[in-house]
Design a protein that fits this description.
454 residues, two-stranded antiparallel ribbon, mainly alpha, 7 strands, single chain, 19 helices
């Protein structure tokens, strides 16, 4: 699927003409947007209103493809969210309400599909060590302050000018491989969450189908369906994956939490754990935030902005380094007050949402409204709905997100350009993405020397 832009003049009855840009997306409808007017003063009011309305129509669409794409980053949100609720004690109401509000705000501002994800370095450490909810809350405030400073002052734009493109591709490739790996683990029952629960599918009554693990069977079937339906606009793949997963949970699930569901209007408690202590702020800065920052800059800011330019060369003008930093800063400030998890915009989530059909800010409004409605109507019992989704269904979403993100490497043309992303991937697998990002920058500049060959 690709876009074709054609400049044209449309002659009006009055003899004047309007300069138009026609954007043709193969496989979708033709969209038209006025990019400029000649002799604008002679145009009547109705003509101007029609042109403005055609521009606005592109920003928010509500259809099956937008809904399908909006489900694309559930594979990254739900596993870490469940873990941090069960292990670290974060409140489901505050966490999912913050996620929903963040989706809404970013969709309204960026006007193109925008991912919302947990900050993985902080989340992984929190789950592995069982730190307190107050320490996680403190990290959200630190993230807010850091991103607000580098985004508000424009420092991030200056930094971004000196990050070579092969480094960005290395971050995207590494993130993609990590997502694929995590998706496979969810299918095999080898993720940390599944290990802690002692079952591959903790919320299903059966674990095997004959000699085969049930998660592998579910994942295999859903994977084949996804391949068959990726380009299907009548029956989008992500809707089938999530719908079939929920149906499996209803039929084979343990029903944990479902019998306790009671509809009502549940309001979140502000600062549910109080103000973190100075020791908690110090711990959060040194142990959680500083290791997270390089990955956030590399993946959630630079790689994400780069991918948005590829996907939305015209409509994604607002997705800049500065805007992404300020957006994430405000999202984490909201998490601090609601007791949610640290959040970001990941390139992997964008790749997944795009691959499953989302294009406009409408996808954010759809999934954001769902999260907000379920959080306010179900409160702490929201988890009863989440438990219906098999881990292997979430794994399939991660695998396809990772492959889409890894394929951005295809525009690397020389051996030197290819070498940098591969080294970043190797360092990421051996250590972490932050180390790969920093070393990749140094390596990319070193390889600019004509004396060095690969």
């Amino acid at each position: 699927m690709f876009n074709l832009y054609v400049m044209s003049r449309i002659i009006l009855k009055s003899g004047q003409y309007v300069k138009m840009a026609i954007k043709i997306t193969l496989g979708q409808e033709i969209r038209m947007a006025g990019v400029g007017y000649l002799q604008e003063d002679h145009m009547d009011t109705n003509q101007k209103i029609i042109s403005k309305q055609s521009n606005k129509a592109v920003a928010f669409e509500f259809n099956r493809m937008e809904f399908a794409g909006s489900l694309g980053d559930l594979g990254t949100i739900l596993p870490l969210s469940i873990d941090m609720i069960l292990i670290n004690g974060l409140p489901p109401l505050g966490l999912f309400l913050a996620v929903g509000l963040f989706y809404i705000f970013t969709g309204l501002y960026f006007k193109v599909t925008t991912p919302v994800e947990p900050m993985k370095v902080i989340g992984a450490y929190a789950i592995a060590t069982g730190i307190t909810a107050s320490q996680i809350q403190a990290s959200s405030l630190w993230i807010f302050l850091f991103l607000l400073i580098i985004g508000g002052t424009g420092m991030i734009t200056m930094i971004g000018r000196y990050i070579p493109r092969p480094v960005i591709r290395g971050v995207q490739l590494s993130t993609g491989v990590l997502l694929i790996s995590q998706g496979v683990k969810l299918m095999l029952g080898e993720s940390k969450f599944q290990a802690l629960r002692g079952a591959a599918e903790p919320y299903l009554n059966i674990q095997t189908l004959g000699p085969l693990p049930l998660g592998l069977v579910i994942g295999g079937v859903l994977g084949i369906l996804t391949l068959l339906l990726l380009e299907n606009k009548r029956l989008p793949a992500a809707i089938v994956v999530v719908g079939a997963g929920l149906l499996t949970g209803i039929v084979l699930g343990t029903g944990e939490g479902l019998h306790q569901i009671k509809l009502g209007l549940y309001l979140p408690k502000l600062l549910p754990f109080g103000i973190p202590s100075m020791n908690e702020f110090t711990f959060a800065l040194l142990v959680l935030v500083l290791p997270q920052i390089p990955m956030t800059l590399g993946n959630a800011v630079m790689a994400n902005a780069d991918l948005s330019i590829q996907y939305f060369p015209s409509d994604g003008r607002r997705v800049t380094y500065k805007a992404l930093c300020i957006s994430m800063a405000l999202g984490n400030l909201m998490s601090f007050f609601l007791g949610g998890m640290p959040m970001c915009h990941g390139a992997g989530g964008l790749a997944s949402r795009y691959r499953f059909g989302a294009r406009t800010g409408g996808s954010n409004l759809i999934i954001g409204t769902i999260f907000i409605a379920l959080a306010l109507l179900l409160g702490e019992h929201f988890m009863g709905i989440i438990y219906l989704l098999p881990m292997s269904a979430l794994g399939i979403l991660l695998i396809f997100a990772g492959t889409q993100l890894g394929l951005t490497l295809l525009d690397m043309n020389t051996r030197k350009e290819m070498f940098v992303p591969l080294v970043i991937l190797g360092i990421t697998l051996a250590s972490n993405l932050a180390a790969g990002f920093m070393i990749g920058i140094i390596l990319s500049y070193v390889l600019k020397s004509e004396k060095l060959n690969i």
